[in-house]
Each structure stands twice: as structure tokens, then as C-alpha cells.
Amino acid sequence: KNEVEQSPQNLTAQEGEFITINCSYSVGISALHWLQQHPGGGIVSLFMLSSGKKKHGRLIATINIQEKHSSLHITASHPRDSAVYICAVRSPSGGSNYKLTFGKGTLLTVNP
Amino acid sequence: NAGVMQNPRHLVRRRGQEARLRCSPMKGHSHVYWYRQLPEEGLKFMVYLQKENIIDESGMPKERFSAEFPKEGPSILRIQQVVRGDSAAYFCASSPPSGSGVGELFFGEGSRLTVL
């Protein structure tokens, strides 16, 4: 069973700051997801990655498979980025690679 | 192309009643997943369905919970004789078939169940 740890649990930043959220997992995976959830809202999938780096607008996600670690970066943060960011890992390829194990999330608050 | 549609968004039930949560996947998606998010806890996998088949229900409580994804119509998560501990947000996600495994996941807005 994979354990997914995120840090920090809570993060407060000023508008414009560079944000980093970290995710570590304990066993091999086939892919890693970064998700965004606004309070009381739905879940939006930001990235799915299995190696390297992906960029979408001000968001960058990286993964190091050997170190079992991923980071989500937000450049030029804005109050509308305030949300819970959730890391989820997918079981290794095979019969159950659809299963996701989720971290507990990082609550990001960006103040104007 | 509408996203994953869940309804109701909010549902209030008294202890002992039944709750039915519906999920319509994105057009063209044949895989549906249900997850539960208990207050102050992370999301947990409940069940994975394809049309007319339950592929994996290992995350479902053994009693009172059932899920289906019929040939026509939405997927339904059914909770019988609800208890206060069932109060949670229930999220559905869907994905298209993918030749190299499960594809990108698309989530719904969730259904928030409150049991009085």
C-alpha cells in the first residue's frame, strides 16, 4: 500500500510569491496526479505525469521517479490560486493501475 | 461537451433513509470511479465500474453501499439505512478507455451528503 505525504499541510503566501508544494510516496507508481479543490467545490485535475516536468500557464509540476518525489510550483501566485492542492499516485501498471492513493492535501492561501 | 455531472450537489437525509447519488460521465467515457472524502480526511477510492460491470469494489463498505453503471443512464451510488458517519462528499470521476492503461481522470463537482 502506498503512503502519500504532502508538505506543507498549510501554506500562506503574499500575492506574487513563488509557491512550492511537495509530495512524497513510498512505493513505485505508474503516474502521479496533481489536483485542485476549492473550498466546497469540485476537483480539477491539473496534471498527470509519469516522468520529467509539465507546465501549464503559471503552474509547473515535476517528478523524480528515483527519489519518489514530486513538486507543484506556482509562479506569480494570485488570490484565486487559494485552494487545496492534492497529490494522488496511481498504482503500478497492471491489473489495478486505475487505483489512486491520495495525500491529505495542502491548503494554500494567497493574500492580496 | 459537458463535463462529469453529479447530482444532487447537496443531499440531506435522516438516519435510516436511503441516499442515491448519480454520476453521468463525460461523453465517450466508459470508466467511472467513485471516491469518498470524509470531513478532515483525504479522498479514498470506493469503486471502479465500466458499463454493466463492477471492476473493483474493494473500497466500498461491505454493507449498505452498492454501485451500478447500467448500459443506459448514469452511474448510481446507493447508500441504504444511512448513518451519521456516512456524511461526506462523494466524488465521481470518469476516464476514456486508453490503450496504455487508464487515461486522464475528469472529476465531477461532488455530492455532499449530510445525515441528520
Helix content of chain A: under 10%
Shape of chain B: globular
Helix-strand topology string of chain B: EEEEEEEEEEE
Structural class of chain B: mainly beta
**Main interface pair?**
A-B, 24 and 24 residues
Extended strand count of chain A: 11
> Would you tell me the overall average pLDDT of chain B?
91
**Largest beta-sheet characterization of chain B:** 7 strands, mixed
Beta-strand content estimate of chain A = over 45%
Helical stretch count of chain A?
A: 0
Which quaternary structure do these chains form? heterodimer
- Helical/strand content category of chain A: mainly beta
User: Number of helical runs of chain B?
Assistant: 0
Describe the structure.
The complex is a heterodimer of chains A (112) and B (116). By secondary structure, chain A is mainly β. Chain A contains no helices and eleven strands. In chain A, the strands form two sheets. In chain A, strands 2, 4, 5, 9, 10 and 11 form a six-stranded mixed β-sheet that branches. In chain B, strands 2, 4, 5, 6, 9, 10 and 11 form a seven-stranded mixed β-sheet that branches. Chain B has a four-stranded antiparallel β-sheet with strand order 1-3-8-7, with no helix packed on it. The radius of gyration of chain B is 14 Å and the shape is globular. The termini of chain B are far apart. With 116 residues, chain B is mainly β. The A-B interface holds A 30, 33, 35, 40-45, 48, 86, 88, 90, 93, 96-105 and B 31, 33, 35, 41-45, 48, 55-56, 91, 93, 95, 101-102, 104-110, 112.
Features:
heterodimer; A: 112 residues; mainly beta; six-stranded mixed sheet; five-stranded antiparallel sheet; 11 strands; globular; B: 116 residues; seven-stranded mixed sheet; four-stranded antiparallel sheet; 48% strand
Give me a quick take on this structure.
The complex is a heterodimer of chains A (112) and B (116). By secondary structure, chain A is mainly β. Chain A is built from no helices and eleven strands.
